[in-house]
Design goal:
The chain crosses the membrane at residues 413-436. This protein has helices spanning 154-172, 204-208, 215-234, 286-289, 296-312, 322-331, 338-343, 345-354, 365-376, 383-386, 393-409, 411-414, 418-437, 449-452, 495-507, 582-598, and strands spanning 110-111, 115-123, 127-134, 139-146, 182-188, 191-197, 201-203, 237-238, 247-250, 255-257, 264-265, 443-447, 454-459, 463-467, 470-474, 481-486, 519-531, 534-546, 552-565, 571-579, 600-601. It is of the alpha+beta class. It has three domains: 110-197, Phosphorylase Kinase, domain 1 (2-Layer Sandwich), CATH 3.30.200; 201-377, Transferase(Phosphotransferase), domain 1 (Orthogonal Bundle), CATH 1.10.510; 443-601, Mog1/PsbP, alpha/beta/alpha sandwich (Protein Transport Mog1p, Chain A), CATH 3.40.1000. The strands form five sheets. It has a seven-stranded antiparallel β-sheet, sandwiched between helices. It has a six-stranded antiparallel β-sheet with strand order 1-2-3-4-6-5, covered by helices on one side. Strands 7-9-10 form a three-stranded antiparallel β-sheet.
């Protein structure tokens, strides 16, 4: 197994893959409390567990039951299995042989006077991971043995050993339940052996090889990884290799981030030679590809790629080889995360923003964790619904139930007269109109046909103001504002081209009155969108206001807008402005999401 974080990538390395949606039959097997194919407690008579744990880094694939995959004999490779070229295939170690066979050279060796090697869990470019037993405290552990290629020079070997020592030191300084625990470092044969906790489970890469995750499960895993990254960043550590292979799914819903082998530690000298790329291209943030100084936003970008692949079934930037992948990271915009957006608008928008090329456009760790926590939380029945006082569709349905019951007792129902048919049609029409257009709780739908030929939902407490061809709404604290405007005919561009025009206008300073710029430090981008099934576009812009001498001043703001141009050249713009960071930013994004979802343009 070759771990992409341990050696520079070959430029012709193939990286093409895809993901399959999960099979229906396996859905019931994936219980919330246990990841798929989680290891089961073996009977005492078993020589080895039914599934070996996946260990950091470069842990091997667990032995599979006969109905999962054929066993491969140690020492003589079996025939390559047939595979779908679109199937996600994480880099795997050789299938380990249970220790009872005695086939593992080195099994039984005592390391450091206390760690008895039992069986190999996997191996990669930097070493082999063993299942071992700590004879002092009587527990199973994982031991990473340095095992480097013979062709390395003494200098390269020492660099790799230094990297392993730093990996142990780096992970040990981070205290978080989702960071693998380092127990010890033993020097054996002048080489560092890392002793760490034994995580019973599989990697996220193994799970994704069987299909995608739903939004809630992806958010649960992402929340744990985000917490681990936050703890690392507080210690001045950048992971730099967040990917599915380095995320372990253990027992009792535990998620563990592993492999700090190429982490960057603030204040320590780097171990990477100039011009050598380390990491996994498709999960590497654009600023790292460009050789710029990375920050916490770089790790969050990688987390965004992981979550996108987990929910959408395809890695957004992976191409047929590493150079093409790196070029895609720098210049390609990923497709909209349709599955994530359909499950949760906030989750889909989070993925979109995490993959922004500019670090300044990405959400911070607090917002990422808050959004993932909201998505991962199981839905709760509202007290109103539980007490039978639900509003909207539920109330209408109960009313229709009473209506139908009354009809059945009426004499005219028994004779099937036309009046009943008319009444029934009217009732059904009322039902579908109310349930389809129902605004969220605390919102109400405003029909603004007179000014903008459209309707949309607005928070009830927002204050309204209007112009000839626009309506605006502001929250009571004047922190978040929303505006919907409609132009006269004459816009010749498409929705996407019109959105790009606004992007360039902002980047040029958003000049007003022909002489004064109004925006500074602008970072803006355009993404494709849809409006009632028609092509539209979104503009996402971070900026600062300007003072009297045209210098950026004050906190950063964020503007999120939808642009739609119909066939007659009439343009609609839905714009929500909010702070660029913090809870108010998250609230503003939710306002945009709900307003966009409810927007109905009459002259589509």
């Amino acid at each position: 197994m070759t771990h992409s974080g341990e050696q520079g990538h070959r430029l012709d390395e193939s990286t093409s893959y895809g993901l399959r949606p999960p099979a229906q039959a396996s859905h019931q097997d994936q219980q919330p409390s246990q990841p798929p194919n989680a290891p089961q407690t073996p009977p005492p008579s078993q020589a080895a567990p039914a599934s070996q744990p996946h260990q950091p880094p470069n842990a091997g694939q667990a032995p599979q039951e006969a109905h999962h995959a054929p066993q491969v004999s140690r020492g003589e490779p079996g025939p390559p299995p047939a595979r779908d070229p679109r199937t996600y295939e994480p880099t795997r170690a050789s299938v380990p042989t249970p220790p009872a066979t005695g086939a593992d050279p080195g099994a039984g060796r005592l390391v450091g006077g206390r760690y008895r090697l039992a069986s190999r869990l996997g191996h990669g470019g930097m070493g082999t991971v063993w299942r071992a037993h700590d004879e002092v405290v009587d527990r199973d552990v994982a031991v990473k043995e340095p095992r480097l290629p013979d062709h390395l020079s003494p200098h390269e070997r020492e660099t790799m050993h230094a990297r392993m020592r730093r990996e142990a030191r780096t992970a040990a300084r981070i205290e978080h339940p989702s960071v693998v625990t380092i127990h010890d470092v033993v020097v054996e044969d002048d080489q560092p052996w890392i002793v760490m906790e034994l995580v019973q489970g599989r990697s996220l890469a193994d799970v994704l090889g069987e299909g995608t995750l739903d939004a809630r499960e992806a958010a649960r895993i992402g929340l744990a990884v985000a917490g681990a990254l936050d703890a690392a960043h507080e210690k001045g550590v950048l992971h730099r290799d967040v990917k599915p292979d380095n995320v372990l799914l253990g027992r009792y819903d535990r998620v563990v981030l592993t492999d700090f082998g190429i982490a960057q530690v603030q204040g320590e000298q780097g171990l990477t030679e100039t011009g050598t790329f380390v990491g996994s291209p498709e999960f590497t943030a654009p600023e790292r590809v460009l050789g710029q100084r990375p920050g916490p936003e770089s790790d969050l970008w990688s987390l965004g790629v992981v979550l996108y692949a987990a929910t959408e079934g395809v890695s957004p930037f992976r191409r047929s080889n590493s150079p093409a992948t790196l070029q895609a990271v720098l210049s390609s915009e990923p497709q909209r995360p349709a599955r994530a957006l359909s499950a949760s608008g906030a989750f889909g928008m989070l993925l979109t923003r995490l993959l922004a090329k500019e670090p300044a456009l990405r959400p911070d760790a607090t917002e990422v964790r808050q959004t993932l926590e909201d998505v991962a939380r199981p839905p709760l029945r509202s007290p109103r619904a539980a007490s039978g006082r639900s509003s909207g569709g539920g109330a209408v349905a109960r009313g229709l139930g009473g209506f139908f019951g009354k009809l059945r007792t009426e004499r005219r129902w028994q004779f099937g007269t036309g009046g009943v048919v008319v009444a029934l049609a009217a009732a059904l029409t009322l039902f579908f109109v109310l349930t389809a257009d129902q605004a969220p709780e605390g919102w109400h739908t405003r029909d603004e046909d007179k000014r903008v030929r459209a309707s949309l939902a607005v928070p009830e407490e927002y204050k309204r103001s209007a112009d000839e061809q626009s309506v605006a709404f502001t929250d009571p604290g004047s922190v978040i504002s929303m505006e919907l405007s409609r132009s006269s005919k004459g816009v010749k561009d498409s929705s996407l081209a019109e959105a790009n025009s606004w992007k360039h206008f902002y980047e040029d300073g958003a000049e007003e009155d022909g002489y004064s710029d109004t925006m500074g430090n602008v970072v803006s981008r355009v993404t494709e969108a849809d409006q009632q099934g028609k092509e539209a576009a979104e503009v996402l812009t971070t900026f600062q206001g300007l003072n009297d001498v045209d210098e950026p001043e004050g906190p950063k703001k964020f503007r999120h807008e939808l642009v739609y141009v119909n066939g007659d050249g009439v343009r609609w713009r839905l714009r929500v402005e909010m702070p660029a960071k913090g809870k108010s930013h998250q609230d503003g994004e939710q306002v945009f999401d709900e307003a966009k979802k409810s927007l109905k343009i009459h002259d589509l």
